[in-house]
Amino acid sequence: MAMEMTYGRVRKALRGFWASRRAGLRTDSGMSTVEYALGLLTAAGVAALFYGVMTSGSVSGALQAMVTKALDAPF
């Protein structure tokens, strides 16, 4: 009987502990600034990568050839 009472108390205490932990995880305070900063850094990294690819010799030559071909097309 004493063992069941101890088990019940421990179980109740653990239930309260985990409930408080879950409640703490649900808050979003301070996260929006970090999310915006990471999004901005990711966008800047992708833009830098895109710029590097677009200004490389082979891609730049292919783009110039496409533009030249499009401008020389007969109407």
Describe this structure in words.
With 75 residues, the protein is mainly alpha-helical. The mean pLDDT is 82.
Q: What is the compact description of this entry?
A:
The chain contains 3 helices and no strands.
Q: What is the averaged pLDDT score? A: 82
Low-confidence runs: none
User: What fraction, in percent, of the residue positions are helical?
Assistant: over 70%
**Shape category:** rod-shaped
CA(first)-CA(last) distance: 96 Å
Report the count of strand segments: 0
Would you list the SSEs in sequence order as H and E? Answer: HHH
SS content category:
mainly alpha
Descriptors for this entry?
rod-shaped, 3 helices, mainly alpha, 75 residues
Describe how the helices and strands are arranged.
Elements: H1 2-25, H2 31-54, H3 57-71
